[in-house]
């Protein structure tokens, strides 16, 4: 089982690294393992809503690499469309 705690804590400011370490420790102690609907790996995390990528729960890594960027792209696209409609 992978916990995806592959963050480079040394590259982070100390306070942020401490927050991530505490979060990962808490997850490893309290979360229930599940299969990520995006990468299909079993992880022991709380999970994240994978929409709009897939229906289901994804791991933290897939959330950061895929889900959040796609959501940002959707928001940006909607904003661009609204702006174009206002200039007509």
List the topology elements.
Elements: H1 14-30, E1 33-35, E2 42-44, E3 48-49, E4 57-58, H2 60-86
Antiparallel strand pairs: 1-2, 3-4
Helices and strands, in order, run as: HEEEEH
Strand content: 5-15%
**Count of spatially separate domains:** 1
Helix proportion range = 40-55%
Strand order of the largest sheet: 1-2
Number of helices: 2
Low-confidence stretches: none
Report how far the terminal alpha carbons are from each other: 54 Å
Mean pLDDT: 87
How does the major sheet shape up?
2 strands, antiparallel
Indicate the structural class: mainly alpha
Notes on the protein architecture:
It is a single chain. This protein is mainly alpha-helical and 88 residues long. The chain has one domain. 50% of the residues lie in helices and 11% in strands. The protein contains two helices and four strands. It has helices at 14-30, 60-86, and strands spanning 33-35, 42-44, 48-49, 57-58. The strands form two sheets. A two-stranded antiparallel ribbon has the order 1-2. A hairpin with a 7-residue loop joins strand 3 (48-49) and strand 4. The longest helix is centred in the last third of the chain and has 27 residues, at 60-86. The radius of gyration is 17 Å and the shape is flat. 14% of the residues are buried. The mean pLDDT is 87.
């Amino acid at each position: 089982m992978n916990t995806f705690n592959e963050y480079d804590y040394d590259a982070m400011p100390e306070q942020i690294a401490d927050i991530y370490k505490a979060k990962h420790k808490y997850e490893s102690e309290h979360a229930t393992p599940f299969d990520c609907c995006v990468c299909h790996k079993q992880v022991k995390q709380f999970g994240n809503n994978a929409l709009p990528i897939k229906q289901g729960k994804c791991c933290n890594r897939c959330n950061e690499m895929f889900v959040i960027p796609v959501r940002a792209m959707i928001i940006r696209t909607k904003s661009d469309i609204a702006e174009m409609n206002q200039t007509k």
